[in-house]
Amino acid sequence: MEFYTYIGRVKKTGVLRFLSNMEYMRSIERTLRRAKFPIWMTQGFHPRIKLSFPIALATGTVDLTGFFEFRMVEDIPKDRIKNLIKEFNLKAPKGLSMTNIWKVEKSGVLSNVIEYYEFKIIMKRSDISDYHMNKNDLNVIDLDFVKLKDFVVVEYIIARNKITKPENVLDNLISNTVNKTFYIPICYKAFDKNFNNIVKTIEQFSV
Amino acid sequence: MISMLYTKTFVQLPWASFILKFRKNLSLRNNIYLLVLRVREEKKMNNINRWLQTSGVLHRVRKPSRYIGNEWNSVIKNSKKISLRFALVFPDLYEVGISNLGLRILYDILNNREDVFAERAYLPWKDMIEEMEKVNVPLFTLETKTPLTEFDVIGFSLQYELSYTNVLLALELSKIPILFEDRIEREDIPLIIAGGPCTTNPLPMERFIDAFVVGDGEEIINEIAEALIQTKRLRKVRKLETLSKIKGIYVPVFHKNKNIKITKRIVNLNDYPIPTKQIVPYMDTIHDRGIIEVMRGCNRGCRFCHAGMIYRPVREREPRTLAKSINELVENTGYEEISLLSLSTSDCTGLNDLLEMILPKFEKNKIAISVPSTRVDAFNVDIANKISKIRRTGLTFAPEAGSQRMRNVINKNISYDDIFEALKKAKESGWTRVKLYFMIGLPFEKDDDILEMVDLIKTIKSNLRFKEVNVSVATLVPKPHTPFQFAKQISPEESFRRFEILKKARKYAKIFLHNPFKSLIEGIISRGDEKISKLILKAHMKGAAFDDWEESFNFNIWKEALQEIEIDPNEYIRERGYNEKLPWDFIELGIDRNFLVREYEKSKNALTTEDCRWGRCTYCGVCYNLGVSNILVH
Fold first, then answer.
1. A119/B contact by beta carbon, under 8 A
2. Residues A13 and A81 in one domain
3. What is the reported pTM?
4. Is there a single domain that holds both residue A138 and residue A65?
5. Chain A: residue nearest B335 by CA?
6. Which of B2, B71, B390 sits opposite A93 (nearest CB)?
7. Angle of helix B516-526 relative to helix B555-564, nearest 10 degrees?
């Protein structure tokens, strides 16, 4: 069966950040079904939806860069795409929302162009006694602490193939064991190899 | 920027873009964080919700999506506008409880009423329990994260005996006194009721539960809700008195004198809508699919089968309404698989009609259908092929016994040829793996019968050339209200001895033996009396929980508990006399004692009894005792 490749962008916020990557993908899949997207399924004994994420986020991470590739059996005009997004958001559980869909020529765009991700981790300052800047073991590119009166925000950029659990990053940076406390890791932005915002790059590829 | 982001992750605030301009102003950013946290904490979150979201606990426990709620189709109501708050509790993990059909039905019926708000609670796993105990957080519901003590009534689902210690654990976690006598004077503690198949012998649990509901829940749940709304301002004793007057409810404190009969409730399924707004869980649950009950009850009359006796008579649903509901279910949930559930779906007379109605659409949308509980004799390759065109599911058969004599003893009513033919056809249609269920310790079983089991497995592997054969073997646990309620249960030692014989089949198949010690405890509780409540309490105090989970079951705890309260297990697994008064006799399921005796006598002589749907009446008594009859489509 013929198919057309699309890139969708979703956000995972609120309590849904505690979904594991599998659970996240499954709930997107089921929301797509509820919203009656004309999805393309793999052939064979076990037909499956083709849904691919460029990375697997650690459980507990807020995802603002939920780009994923999927296939539909129809070539959908731009105005209908808007309706589909609207329908998706009506049928999605609170905390999951779709912001955009782009049609692309061929598959593999995401994994080819996304090179870096920006993460931010928010913590309560009262939970932390001591922290230090030590990015040597971390493979992070740009590491920054933003100190506020009550909060500390760790911001870093990391290459896609070196992504590690936010928990590990914190373990390296903070003396007292941070995984016993409250923190909100956020996958914030995705970039291509020239550090351009990935949305612009995807738009170049979209048809 | 971060402020905006933080507000977005917690609450959507319209002025987020405004803050962007002040991103350099750190103190303002800090204030925004505080504001956001405080607004959320004070207005929307109760203590438990705040603890869940801001203590980091969900980062520390395994599978945190068990505890977050917020699933699609879960219902949240304004609790100020309703008259009765109902907590439905499944005494096991989320992934087990969410799969249960009974609770899906009750959740639907209760929340369709404007005056009732039903919420769900499941037992958290040990890591979460530890976290909760550390900071004194009680067991809470998923919808509004409310402690169970704040509800008007708590309903437990008793599905299997090994979950009884979990019920006690759930009460303990909720800070509710476990024993009934400690609660009866406490008006601040909700009423504790229980339903499900295990209430057909309520005695082992009667010290812990205020009222037991026997039989189908569809009709009675409304009666309970209404009775409790009317008696809302009355004392607990009066509430229980009102409940005790409803048919099908056993209230231990009002029914002390066991001369009474508690008659089970029966409904015609066609009078009740099928729940189609089923909750879609995030995590991988044990039955991660939509459930449609096509039929309730089964008259095949297998002599060991509890469900086959307590859910009589057979009641089928109309294929047309089923098809409509299935389509609704698919649209409401987005499930990619729908299970046509019943005790024996291939017996359903309307199944072909139903499949004809739904298959074209399902094939187009690639939605799979699973038909559990397929009998070998009814295994219709056409049906199987039709279904497997969409998604090929596993093939599971339950011959239960190896020799023809034993299959007659249990009244399985299938022959060697049935098994062979069905598997041959399945093999020809492309299945290469098969799973088989067997039982050992059946009454009148001899070693030769087990050797025949080995032969059967060998034939399936060698002659039919299945690539993979998985065999699951369990020890028979005689259940109340079945013909085998009179039978002796074999000891774990004897189970192991018989299993040794079966091990010869290891060359041909992977064989798994269900833990015989678990079967022993299950057997003691199943046919237990009031004394067993002491055993359950003792085991609970010694830390028994999640006994149905192989890695959590600790036989030593139970052994010690048995010794300490001086209960001889043999007393509970022994053979019972036909004239003996049995602890569960006062629960009236419509089945005549004489029928059970007749069946047990027949099994001694390996004689079979036909299904009354296509044979003659077996005089089990259900129809004339309860004034009902089979409801068949054809």
1. no
2. yes
3. 0.92
4. no
5. A30
6. B71
7. 40
Phi/psi of residue B198, nearest 5 degrees: -70, -15
For the beta carbon of residue B230, count every other beta carbon within 10 angstroms.
12
Q: Does some domain include residue A200?
A: no
* Residue B569 backbone class (left: φ over 0; alpha: ψ -120 to 50; beta: rest): alpha
Same domain, A51 and A132: no
In the structure, how many helices (H) and strands (E) does chain B have? 26, 17
Q: Is A40 on the interface with B (CB under 8 A)?
A: no
Whether A198 is covered by a domain: the verdict is no
Buried b (16+ CB within 10 A) or exposed e, A149-162: eebbbbbbbbeeee
| C-alpha span between B518 and B477 (Å, rounded) | 10
Q: What is the mean pLDDT of residues B405-411?
A: 95
Helix (H) / strand (E) containing B475: strand B468-475
In angstroms, the CA B367 to CA B382 distance is: 18
Residues A183 and A88 in one domain: no
For B618-627, write each residue's pLDDT tens digit.
999 999 999 9
Q: Contact at 8 Å (CB) between A50 and A40? A: yes
Instruction: Please check whether residue A197 lies inside any domain of the structure.
Output: no
The answer, for A74 touching chain B at a CB cutoff of 8 Å, is: no
What is the CATH code for B59-263? 3.40.50.280
Cα distance between residue B620 and residue B622, in whole Å: 6
What whole-number distance in Å separates Cα of residue A65 and Cα of residue A63?
6
Q: B336 CB near a chain A CB, below 8 Å?
A: yes
Whether A26 and A101 share a structural domain = yes
As for the ipTM of the complex, it is 0.92
The answer to whether residues B316 and B350 touch, using CB atoms and an 8 Å cutoff, is: yes
Give the torsion sign (CA, A76, A78, A84, A89).
positive
- CATH number for the domain formed by residue range(s) B274-527+576-623: 3.80.30.20
- Determine the structural domain holding residue A132 and report its residue range: 116-191
Q: What tens digit of pLDDT does each residue of B33-62 get?
A: 665 555 455 555 678 988 888 888 999 999
Residues 283-322 of B with CB under 8 A from A: 283-284
Q: How far apart are CA B214 and CA B198, in angstroms?
A: 9
The reply to whether A94 falls in a domain is yes
Of A112, A136, A155, which residue is a domain's last?
A112
A134 and A101, same domain (yes or no): no
